[in-house]
Amino acid sequence: MNPAAIEALRTYYGYDRFRPGQEKLIEAILNAQDVLGIMPTGAGKSICYQIPALLLDGVTLVVSPLISLMKDQVDALNSAGIEATYINSSLSLKETNERMRDVAAGHYKLLYIAPERLESEQFRAMIRRLEVPLIAVDEAHCVSQWGHDFRPSYMTIVRLLQDIEPRPVMAAFTATATDVVKDDIVERLRLREPERVTTGYARSNLALIVVRNADKRDFVARFIKEHADQAGIIYASTRREVENVYTFVRGLGVSVGKYHAGLSEEERAHTQEAFQKDDLQLIVATNAFGMGIDKSNVRFVIHNNMPKNLEAYYQEAGRAGRDGDPGECVLLFSPQDVVTQKFFIEQSEATEDRKRNDYRLLNDMVQYAHTGECLQLTIVRYFGEENGEPCGACFNCTDTRETIDVTVDAKMIFACISEMKQRFGVTMTAKVLRGANDAKIKQFDFDRLRSYGRLKHMAEKPLVQLIHALVADGYLRMSDTAYPVVQLMEPVLEVMRGEARVYRKVEPEAPPVSRSGSRYGSSRGSGSAAPVANEELFAALRQLRKRIADGEGLPPFVIFHDATLREMCEAMPRTERELRTVKGVGAAKYEKYGQAFLELIRTYS
């Protein structure tokens, strides 16, 4: 590895070695090769372009989608002693012109911009006069129409290549991308034979949980009580639902904020800043909140409603545990969520091809909500990773419910679908099997089928759940249409011939939420915070960090992450040399904050 890169990592970031994938990407960039990095949230994507920016002549441009994210990253860089700034719509014209002059004068190594800035001819004229060795595109999935968060403004990025001579290295990064989206990123950003690095999608510190058909308000209330004083995000699918959940949670006496596009820009900025600074424990938000959010100590993410696809879900859920400590990601699923997402698809102005793709992705999301397999493994396979082991931490891996043989019921379902010529959906299939007195059933003469009424002993909800479970387990598939029909898959043959059995877990009556002894808690990924050697000192260090952060107008994690404070509690450093060996304590941070933390630690020695 480039010795200068290692030295920069040690000096500015306080670490002695790179994480998986970082070395390869940094080496490629320093060798003037384009790169595409697919790295999960918390894997350290930003270091992959920040360190080359320090070592290359000129100023590196970083294209980032959110104003709040730019500010967080620039604050963190400046705190570490790295000269960086941003230009976005939050600045006045005078501030913008001043920063552009400073950039032109060579005062900065990194300049963060929103893609919309590239539409400014004044800005592009300035760029033509600069030495720009590297353009880093964060949240690069936004450039792909087949991803989950397409932003037309990202298409303006390639215009930079026409303005800069010689052509800079292009580096694209995102946390999640299917193979289709990866290829789309390469094509749309015109990456030249990029070094592709995918470090793996599994997040071993996260416990993934799916709760079906629960009383959502009751679950949220119990969960928050069991996770008192922990930072969390609750996602809802609509502004109205955000308002409802926010009102409910605030009624529990919890410090909570709300965030959606219906609020003023000033309100949203104030709420996000309060959350970043640990002044708010919880945020209730639509998916407008959080892309690239840098807050490291989010301990849980609850999806009150199912997102539109697995990419969106994993991006949002991955905001828990960015610091590597345990986190919980809960999906509260109900059939109404599917109806809501279908409405969004139908109301969109997307092409028919795009809508068909969106329905396919929605079906994948529904299957995830019903699978009996390891939830982590289900996700990594969705993104194309075939090799993997069960995580041992998710709801399904730690599930102790009784497994029952449902082969007889499954055969009835398969036979009914066959008799209906594989042309109808889950609801109609369930009605026929239950022997419903329905006009449409009589219209198609389905009341004359051999399958009619064969599962009348089952209530509609568990029967529908079983059909969805059979889809998730690969016995059935759903068509990629607005009104998906159920179709038989090859594994059905073995079951119908008596060569294979079908098993299913008993549905729980009320899912537990307690961290201790819960079905989804484990040493690898429970919702409890990581153990601390000295709880009293840890609390005191956090208070000191908060005072310093408030004084500087920064989020506390910009000063030091919780993991760094925890290591201080273990190592109990008494000198500069000892404190500098703690991960996360770089030279600039020691100069700014080192003595204050050493003095506090000494009082506990």
From TrEMBL:
Q: Which domain of life is it from?
A: Bacteria
Renumbered to this chain, the Low complexity biased-composition regions fall at 514-528
Q: Which residues cross the membrane?
A: none
- Residues of the signal peptide: none
Renumbered residue ranges of the record's region Disordered: 507-529
Q: Name one GO cellular component term.
A: cytoplasm
Q: Which residues form the HRDC domain?
A: 531-605
The record ties this protein, via Pfam families, to: DEAD, Helicase_C, HRDC, RecQ_Zn_bind, RQC
Q: What is its EC number?
A: 5.6.2.4
The residue ranges of the Helicase C-terminal domain are: 215-366
What UniProt keywords are attached to this protein's entry? Answer: ATP-binding, DNA damage, DNA recombination, DNA repair, DNA-binding, Helicase, Hydrolase, Isomerase, Metal-binding, Nucleotide-binding, Zinc
Any one GO biological process: SOS response
Q: Give the reactions, separated by semicolons, that this protein catalyses.
A: Couples ATP hydrolysis with the unwinding of duplex DNA by translocating in the 3'-5' direction
Which intervals hold domain Helicase ATP-binding?
26-195
Give the family, as the similarity comment puts it: Belongs to the helicase family. RecQ subfamily.
Name this protein carries in UniProt: DNA helicase RecQ
Q: Which organism is it from?
A: Cohnella terricola
